[in-house]
Specification:
single chain, D-Maltodextrin-Binding Protein, domain 2, 2 domains, three-stranded parallel beta sheet, 10 helices, 13 strands, 40% helix
Length: 267
């Protein structure tokens, strides 16, 4: 009951904001008129977003997207696509926002506006090598003998290219491909967000995987929205603030980043 009352409070706040939106922008107009919020995700970034064994999209970002759509009183349409295509799809109007473990960077803010962050992450590595797992700084992986997997189009890929230029970069379309390469011995490690690395260990408890005790970096994760509609940006920003204030986001973080009971739903 408490959660329902909190959701009602958020809905009322958002409804009031929409009533006061005298000059709604193109994205907000489309969402309201169509009754649909299109959110781009990869569907392959647990615990942010992934597909369960029964074919449903689950994850922290899925929960947050559902909460936003509920507050806006519209249907949620999750549009699944490769990570490298997400910002382009946002610019082309194929989706209304991106929620896919996307770090807020200077380069990305040239293409989109960002709401948040709704969580903090950082660059880490998942590996079978006890030596690599004990690395204290990224420079220790800058070795021509090492093969490092990273998600194509991600800040992890950019991080390897910039900080570990001597290592051989193997760009993968999703984390599952990267983990498979690691388990098959075709790469020495995968560079990814700390949450991804910890979850991979939970999913493969007998594979001898390990990760860093502390990430190399810290990155803010946010929602990308079109730069063409400040009214829509303001509305979503207010919503995330309220979700944080009432504890809804904290409960999501506990469920998806700390509990781990949901892992049994994965294929």
């Amino acid at each position: 009951m408490k959660i329902l009352l909190q959701r009602l409070a958020v809905t009322l706040l958002l409804a009031a904001a929409m009533v006061n939106a005298h000059a709604a922008g193109p994205v907000l107009d489309r969402v309201v008129e169509s009754g649909e919020l299109r959110v781009g995700m990869t569907g392959s970034q647990p615990p942010y977003n992934t597909i369960s064994r029964d074919g449903k999209m689950i994850g922290l970002e899925v929960d947050l997207a559902n909460l936003i759509a509920s507050g806006l009183r519209v249907d949620l349409n999750i549009v699944k696509m490769p990570f490298s295509d997400l910002l382009k799809a946002l610019e082309n109007g194929k989706i209304d926002m991106v929620m896919s473990g996307m770090a807020i960077t200077t380069k990305r803010t040239q293409k989109a506006s960002f709401v948040g962050p709704y969580m903090l992450s950082g660059k880490s590595v998942i590996t079978r090598s006890s030596v690599l797992a004990e690395a204290k700084e990224a420079g220790q992986l800058d070795d021509a003998k090492l093969k490092l997997a990273a998600l194509a189009g991600s800040t992890s890929e950019e991080y390897v290219e910039t900080v570990m230029p001597q290592a051989k970069l193997v760009a993968v379309k999703d984390y599952d491909d990267g983990v498979k390469l690691l388990l098959d011995g075709k790469v020495d490690a995968m560079v990814a967000d700390m949450a991804i690395c910890l979850l991979t260990i939970l999913r493969h408890p007998d594979a001898g995987l390990s990760t860093l005790k502390s990430p190399f970096t810290f990155e803010p994760i946010g929602i990308a929205v079109p730069r063409t509609d400040p009214q829509f940006l303001n509305l979503i920003d207010n919503f995330v603030d309220v979700a944080e204030d009432i504890g809804a986001l904290e409960r999501m973080r506990q469920k998806w980043l700390e509990d781990g009971a949901w892992v049994v739903a994965l294929p």
